[in-house]
Amino acid sequence: MTAPNILNISNIRGNTAVLNVITVAANVVANPSNSNKVFKINTLLISNINGTVSADVTAEFVRSGAPYDIVSTVSVPADATLVALSKDTPIYVEEGDFIRITASSNSSIQAICSYEEIS
């Protein structure tokens, strides 16, 4: 697993990933092994699109199979948005790392992740 030296990069590509979050953990962003890239996560927004009921959400950064909580079982009120990561608190997703999200109910939570793919 390597990551490019970000002082000597040749490409930065902006990306936005979206996910309809369900009760089974799913990746919103995954950096494949041997990609020779690092992803800088700028924003992770988690929205409850259900107009009447709150829903709990967990977002995890996973490295070498070990999960590290970004947010853990946080209640997102109906019609509200949680800023889990922002430009003030970016993280880097190296090769083989990923961010996955789980919700307490299906059809309530959506996620939007803005990131830079650096190589």
Account of the 3D structure:
The chain is 0% helix and 59% strand. It is built from no helices and 9 strands. Strands 1, 3, 6, 7 and 9 form a 5-stranded antiparallel β-sheet that branches. The protein starts with 11 loop residues before the first strand and ends with a strand. The model has no long low-confidence stretch (mean pLDDT 95).
Which percent range describes the beta-strand content?
over 45%
For the largest beta-sheet, the strand count, sense and barrel status come to:
5 strands, antiparallel
- Helix fraction, binned, reads under 10%
Name the poorly predicted regions. Answer: none
Counting H and I runs of at least 4 residues, what is the number of helices?
0
N-end to C-end Cα span: 14 Å
Mean model confidence by pLDDT: 95
Total number of strands: 9
Structural shape: elongated
Order of helices and strands: EEEEEEEEE
Category from helices, strands and their pairing: mainly beta
Radius of gyration: 15 Å
Short description:
The chain has no helices and nine strands. It has 119 residues and is mainly β. The strands form two sheets. Strands 1, 3, 6, 7 and 9 form a five-stranded antiparallel beta sheet that branches.
Write the layout of secondary structure elements.
Blueprint: E1 12-21, E2 26-30, E3 38-48, E4 55-63, E5 66-76, E6 81-85, E7 91-93, E8 98-103, E9 109-118
Antiparallel strand pairs: 1-9, 2-8, 3-6, 3-7, 3-9, 4-5, 4-8
